[in-house]
Amino acid sequence: MADKGAFRQDLIVSSRYQNRLPPPPFAPKFLEIDTGGIDQYLTTSFASSLARREEPNIDVDAEGGMPIDMIGIPGYLAGDESAIMAPERPPILDPADQELMLSVDQIKKQGAGNNVSFLRKTQYLSTSSIRSTDPFTKNARSRQPVSMKTAPPVDRDDKENVKRHVQKGFDLAYPDSIPYNVSEVTQIQRTKQEREAWEHPIHPSGDQSIRPVDYYPVLPDFEATTDEGGTFQRIKFDKAPLPAHHGKRDDRIDVATFQTLPNPALAAEWQAKLEAYERDPNAYDHPGPEPHTFVMATPSDPSHVPLVRKFLYDGHPDKDDPAVSNPMLAESLSGEMRVPFERKRVYASNKQEAVDQRRFLALGLYDPNSSGNLVPPSDIKRKQGKAAYYYPVAEMIRLRPDRSKIANPSFQTDSDTPLADLFMYMPRQLDSREAYDRLQMRGRYDYAFENEYEELRAAALAQEEAQQAEDIVQEQGTLEKGQADVSMDEVLNGEEAEVALDRSGGQRPARDDDDAMDDD
Q1: Distances (CA, A) of 377 to 8, 323, 373
Q2: R_g of the chain computed on alpha carbons
Q3: Among 418, 414, 360, 411, residue whose Cα is nearest residue 390
Q4: Where would you find the membrane-spanning parts of this chain (predicted)?
């Protein structure tokens, strides 16, 4: 008989069993798929022949460069903040959307509404205050409360975010300018790691042995003007455009000129692709720029290259010196003295690609105090000091020599006119329209040039209107004094009726609609 003083005792057992899969009783079976003729593409001979057939297009060394992530905001680096500022007259929002524009602080200040008094702020309990006496959970890791506050995502392309990071970059580069920052810009604190990274930069490859030798601020070059509104073309040759001259590089390529002519061999194919793209842009890609034939001309004498640089550079002090221009001038067929350039090569465009000028930039390092400068620095560049000037690239062109044109000196264009072997050049003063086109980049970014740029714009418009009026006069013929070749009905019914002004001085030929007049 059991003792009455005995007590009950429970035994707790935790058993674990392994349930692993048994090994397969037989080896796996694979499907036998006939690969056909793919084996011939896996041999070393095919790879070698492919490398010989296809010429790789590789940009290396200076052509590759280092990627620079520009912010893409026009005018910001030049002080124009209009692109990132809110409009002066913001649009009126719908009352239902007004609450969506409230900030977190404004929502907190509103408090709870009268009809939602049962709501209260969520409180999270911590498990650290709970004392557990269970022997099996005594040593368990306590769970930390999960924070429900997460930072709102920041759009990388948000204008305010870009503006803050640009300002932060200037604060890192120029700490002395921090007290003069614009008060509207929210400051981003500079960390110690960021200051050390600026003071001791590391090459993108991670190589610790590569150290920077100098620093250059990135600036636009307003003195480099083109007829395309300040954009440039990157031209790449399959081979050296000119052979070496006395064992050295031929510097005539630096002052060479290129004339573009239509390429009849590729024009039909390009026109067909363009028409297909215009019919259905979703199904066809844009064919890009129209293919052209490029004719390169260089000075006749290689020793004239330094003189050509001085003669064609407006800011050179010796530009008008007869000692610079007289040695290279030659008499043209019209009897005028001009600079001769001879045709050297005829190229066909192997590839023409229009690119975004905000993403593709050419970068040039310039030191006004360097002894290797080909021309003396201007007052602006001397004031700016050392700088890395960038040039927007709008088109990339790859040229290959057109052997048929080189072998045929009497190559003719579409107009059946033989291509000239010698070109005679002489600089002239730009007209209003040409000056306006060449200074568009400076007009967009340079605020100090704003008033002068508006005057150029007005002069260019006046020149176009005068040219249109002159064309109308040539088309309609001269009129009698005080008359206009347009009826009153056309004036009343059409606001865009073209009126030919009287510039004939009262003389014009007789017409059929003139009234017959009897002799006195």
Answers
A1: 104, 21, 8
A2: 38
A3: 360
A4: none
Q: What confidence tens digit (pLDDT) does each residue in 182-215 have?
A: 666 666 777 888 888 888 888 888 888 888 888 8
DSSP three-state, residue 50: helix
Give yes or no for residue 457 having a pLDDT over 50.
yes
Rounded (10°) CA dihedral 73, 75, 80, 86: -30
CA 167, CA 180: separation in Å to the nearest integer? 11
Torsion of CA 155, 156, 161, 163, to 10 degrees: -150
Q: Which amino acid is at 62?
A: A
- DSSP result, 213-261: -----EEE-TT---TTSS-EEEEEESS-SS--BTTB--GGGGG-EEEEE
Distance (Å) of CA 268 to CA 79, 274, 286, 412? 47, 10, 15, 18
SS3 346: strand
CA–chain centroid gap for 513, Å, is 58
* Single-letter amino acid code for the residue at 170: F
What whole-number distance in Å separates Cα of residue 392 and Cα of residue 228? Answer: 11
Could you tell me which of 413, 409, 404 has the C-alpha nearest to residue 342? 409
Residue with tokens 């977190």: 104
pLDDT digits (tens, 9 = 90+) for 350-405: 888 888 888 899 999 999 888 778 778 888 888 888 999 999 999 898 888 876 65
Q: Which tokens belong to 114?
A: 């009268």
70-86 pLDDT, tens per residue? Answer: 567 776 666 778 778 87
The per-residue pLDDT for range 295-353, each reduced to its tens digit, is 999 998 888 888 888 887 777 777 788 888 888 888 888 888 888 999 988 888 888 88
Which of 138-142, 357-361, 399-403, 443-447 ranks highest by mean pLDDT?
357-361
What's the token pair of residue 220?
């636009």
Tell me the three-class secondary structure of 410-443, residue by residue: CCECCCCCECCCEEEECCCCCCHHHHHHHCHHHH
pLDDT band at 504 (very low <50, low <70, confident <90, very high): very low
Domain boundaries, the chain: 159-172+184-202, 218-409+416-427, 429-474
Which letter, b or e, does each residue of 324-342 get, where b requires 16 or more Cβ atoms within 10 Å of its Cβ?
bbeebbeebeeeeebbbbe
